[in-house]
Amino acid sequence: MTIVELAKYARRPLRFVRLMESLKPSDLYAALSLARALDRSSHPMRRHCAGMLYCWCTQQLVIERKGADMHEHDLFDDDRNGALKRPCDASDDLNEASDTQRDSTRSRAALGPPAPPAWPASASAGPLIAVFDAQQIDAYEAVYSRRLKDQEERGQVSQVIGHLRRSGVYRSLHMIRPSWRQELDGLQQQFPNCVDYIDYLRTAFVLAEREGSPLRLEPVLLNGPPGVGKSLLATRVAQLLGTGCHTVHIASAQDNSALGGSSAFWSNARPGAVFNALVYGPHADPIIILDEIDKVSTDRYDPLGPMLTLLERDSASRFHDACQDWLTIDASRLVFIATSNDAATLPAPIRSRLRQIDIPAPTSEQSIAIARRLWEDLCAEMPMATRGISLVDDALNALAEHPPRLVRRALREAVGRTLYASRTLIDVHDLLACLGQSPRSIKCGFV
Length: 447
Hints:
With 447 residues, this protein is an alpha/beta fold. It has 20 helices and nine strands.
């Protein structure tokens, strides 16, 4: 019954603390499951109570086990202790809104400064590096409730600290697989016009293999005409590495908040892509794709400002997001892949920090190979729609003079035209019509 009452009074800290201190040892694991459920709440006071409950239960379990090491998978085991459902807000007392601020202050005084719980050990099998400073987080956790006046800002900090308590300060690094040669050969078959970049990947992979160390890729700029497959190539490389991919569309960015977060001064402050990738992701070296970096607008704010810090390893190891500037992040292992159509328009400091690799338009033979691979990808993406449909021999030749972006679009539309006409073959006329080069059109609509 005490667990149910704890859930009921999760927005009244003083009552919550009294019930928490009356927990029996047999209720501690259920209380930890409740703490995790409350930590997912949108209400900052519920998350505040979740942090108190987590700290108190951890201390009690350490005492009960006589100082035995505590691990995160022991404390939050869904199979052993099912997470409790969030209680309905309608069951709270009517006067709780006026008591929230007063109860929060009194509960801090009643509890005193709790000892921080032990940091969990990572379950990753790969090599690990410390991306965050555990001592810095412990120190800020003890003072942030007094320093921050805004309740929403305190709630955001509490949520970040709570997540780091569960995930730990270490993140894994990518180790290459023994099959990397075959994987890169397959990537070259899919992107035959991108051989220069794939050759660079081969040199980085073979160095990592010989040293037996994690893969280290320097920031690159894929520069070439529109539609030749630069963005798709970056995405496929991220899939090959398996470390996660975060795309930032620089052309639509109005300031540097997309990368470095927005200042906590604003009411709608949010962390940037770097913060989200490292705090909420399992890897220390995810890929950040900067799409259309040459289309950046610097009329008022510079969206590329954080790049001056992030593209240098020394400064990137001490990165601070503008929204959560109290937390020092080691972003030196991030992998940046930028794309552009005209690298000459980039600022010189940014261009000098990127390894530029030109991606030419594919030749006729390469275009046919790319079109064949795009057709295979389309069949895998839409197996029901493409079942029983095939391309005639001359259809791929009709696509040889067009960039991959238009080829992918034309193939998809041609499948729809063929299905509408109840046919099983996609001919040259279908593809030319989809590319806008034929007067032939299908009849649809009202008669």
